[in-house]
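Q: My labmate handed me this sequence with no annotations at all. I'd like to see what the chain might look like in three dimensions before we decide whether it's worth expressing. Could you predict it?
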Amino acid sequence: MKRQFDDILLGSIELFCLAAEEGSFTAAALVAGVTPAAVSRSIARLEDRLGVRLFVRTTRSIRLTEGGRGYYEQCRQALAQLVEAERAVMGQQQEPTGVLRISIPTTYGHYRVLPLLPEFRRRFPQVKVEVHLSNRNIDFAAEGYDLAIRVRAQPDSTLIARHLEDAALVVIAAPDYLKRHGTPQTLDDLERHECIQFELPSSGRRISWLFLDQGREREIFAESSYVLTDDVVMGGVTLARHGAGLFQTYRFIVERDLAEGSLMEVLQEYGGRSRPFTLLYPQNRHVPLRLRAFVDFLMGYREQWRAVDPSARQTTRR
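A: Here is what I predict for the chain of 318 residues:
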C-alpha cells in the first residue's frame, strides 16, 4: 500500500478538528499545547493540499465553510476510529512497565514531583523511575529522556507541551529582619533593603523580581550584598530564614514557613505574578503506556495545586 499520509498531515487534521470544535485557533492551541500560529500554519497546509477553504476567518471568530463542515465530519469519524484502534492494541498491555526517565528542575522536583513518586509507584509498581534534577535544557533523543518539566518552556513543534501550573511568586523575609529594618510598604522601599539576588552563571544577568502595580506588570532589578549563582531558590530561602534580607520565590516552597510564622510575606498588594511550569514529552503517535500513566498522574494534581494557592486566580503567566 502506497503511503498517503505523514505525521505532519495527521497532526494538521487533529488541529483542524480541534479548531472546528473550539471555535477559535487560540482555544485549539491551548487544548493542544501549541501556539495559535502553529494551528494557523497547520490549517493553511491542509487548505493548500485540498485546494479548498476550510474556515471563513474574521478578526474575532472563525466558522467552517460548507466544504469545511463535510471535511470535519469525515475527519472526526476517522480520528475516532484511530483512537479506538489504538485503545484496542494498548489494551493488550494491561500494566505499565519499564523504565521512565524524567528531567525536572531542582526546586520543582523537591517540592512538587518527588513527594508524589511513592504514590505513583504504589499505583504502578512495574515502572522504575529515573529522576534527573537539573535546570538545563536536555536533548530527548540523544539523552534518552521520556519527559521533562521546565519553567517558561519555549514552543517546540517536536514536543507535546502540557501546562501544569502558574506558580505564584511571593516576597518573604524573616520576622527578625523586618524588626531590624522595617517592613517595605511600596516597591520604591526595596531600594533601602537587602534583596537577595540570583545571577545566571552563563551570562552574568540578574533575574528580575516580578510585580503587579495598579494592574501594570513591573520588573525590578534590586541591589543586594547577596548574589546566588546556583541552587537559587533553596539558597535564597535559607538566607531569608536567617535574616539576610528579602527574597522573591514561589509560594509553594514557603507555604509551611508562612503558616508557622518563621517567614513573613511582604508587599502583598503588589503580588499576582507567576511563572508557568510545563510538562514536555516528544511527539510520538505510540506513547508508551508508562509515560501516558505518569502524564495523567501528574495532570491530576493541577486542580489540587491551584486550590492550595490562595493567589492562583490572580496569577499572570510570565
